[in-house]
């Protein structure tokens, strides 16, 4: 397995949507990336924190609002085979909507959990000693309806909060992912994406299918057992219009392009990450919703013990740091 890679997984993907009662508001976007991971053919567990902010322009005389989405996500990976991996994600979400007139809506709950299985089409052990190192992975997964969908405002209990604010979608969705990455020496680049085929929930509402993709370049700095990996990239998020009872809903769906930067710090058994993004251009909910900044912080702990490799690996040795003992006999 590649020791560094970028993978995009939308675990609980929500976009600006028209909720019941024609209540438009921004909502938490997916496109949560795994970032640069220490792919040492070891299982791991980790936690990530996200913040996303949106600005919504209301119809008529209704007050405008800002939407704040905070997520604490527990996730892990199990690798039964060097070319197979299973990833699981469980998000806990805290959302708030602050109106310009001072009124505020808040909620916190478990979100929709996700499970993804990935397969490496390029055998990572055959790439270990090449000058140009490649990774090519495909994945298939499921987002499960574990999050709440009918949370109500305590001061207005007759109607649920807008669909966009709910921590769950109420539907089981299929996930299809792909990744290509390349590295030579201390420089590398990757392109990845995930397509989510959404289902219809018990209320007859279907969030629009969505596509999230990203490209980035990274550089490996540091020496010894610690590596600093800064990176830059751009991300495109797109979602089709929602449907209610089979009818397309106005002022739903849209797209946004964002630029992002971050840094990951790796040791042999631990990693920390920090990243931020800003919108470049967007058209969401027919122009009524504008994305603001996004911030992500992550920490990952590797489980088990890495295997030792024979001989000196190409610089930097972090990319394929832990490979099979018989790597020198692998056909190039």
State the separation between the terminal residues, measured CA to CA: 16 Å
Helix content: under 10%
The count of DSSP E runs of length 2 or more, i.e. the number of strands, is 22
Shape: globular
Strand order of the largest sheet: 5-6-7-9-10-13-14-16-17-20-21-22
Tell me the strand percentage band: over 45%
Overall pLDDT confidence: 80
CA radius of gyration is 21 Å
**Class computed from helices, strands and strand pairing:** mainly beta
Q: Give the H and E element order.
A: EEEEEEEEEHEEEEEEEEEEEEE
**Major sheet details:** 12 strands, antiparallel, barrel
- Model regions low in confidence, pLDDT < 50 over at least 5 residues: 1-22, 307-332
- DSSP helical segment count: 1
Can you give a write-up of this model?
The protein is an all-beta fold. 1% of the residues lie in helices and 56% in strands. It has one helix and 22 strands. The strands form five sheets. It has a twelve-stranded antiparallel beta barrel. β5 and β6 form a beta hairpin. The longest helix is centred in the middle third of the chain and has 4 residues. The two termini are 16 Å apart.
Characteristic terms for this protein:
about 325 residues; mainly beta; twelve-stranded antiparallel barrel; three-stranded antiparallel β-sheet; 1 helix; 22 strands; about 0% helix; about 55% strand; globular; disordered N terminus
